[in-house]
Amino acid sequence: MMNARKVSTLLVAAALLGVAAAQFAGCEKYVLPAITLSQDTLWFQAGGGSQVVHITTNVITTAEPATADQLWIVTDPLWFDETSDVKVTVDPNQGASRTATIPIKSEVIQKNLVVIQEGI
């Protein structure tokens, strides 16, 4: 026969398990963030132009805006989720060939899109 102390301990343990189960039941399933690019490198001739990269993601994602030395590149849109076509436009190049990296990222994952443009 169990004594009162053992019964009390079992009741407390059962109550704690019930609370934990109730909290766990309301939790959503965690999905591992993912970003997929249709291609990771874009090649442009010296005359410039536009190309589209198809991006699939399950998190809100951004294309980092151009830095001061990358003002020859424009990406549109700059943020997206699910599936998006991102248009990358480069200005005509009047100098040597140039390369830039556009980070495509969320809070926890990043892919890089490399843009290469021929020179004259």
Please provide a written account of the structure.
The chain has 120 residues and is an alpha+beta fold. The chain has a domain at 35-117: Immunoglobulins (Immunoglobulin-like), CATH 2.60.40.10. 18% of the residues lie in helices and 41% in strands. Strand 8 and strand 9 form a beta hairpin.
Write the layout of secondary structure elements.
Blueprint: H1 4-25, E1 35-37, E2 41-44, E3 49-57, E4 61-63, E5 73-76, E6 79-80, E7 83-90, E8 98-105, E9 110-117
Parallel strand pairs: 2-9
Antiparallel strand pairs: 1-3, 3-7, 4-6, 4-8, 5-7, 8-9
Q: Compute the number of helices.
A: 1
* Biggest β-sheet strands, sense, barrel: 5 strands, mixed
How many E-type strands?
A: 9
| SS-based class | alpha+beta
**Overall form:** elongated
SSE sequence, one letter per element: HEEEEEEEEE
According to CATH, the homologous superfamily of the domain at 35-117 is: Immunoglobulins
Secondary structure: helix percent: 10-25%
Flag low-confidence runs.
none
Strand content: 35-45%
**Whole-angstrom Rg:** 26 Å
What distance separates the N and C termini?
Answer: 93 Å
Strand order of the largest sheet: 2-9-8-4-6
Text of the CATH class of the domain at 35-117:
Mainly Beta
* Mean pLDDT across residues: 85
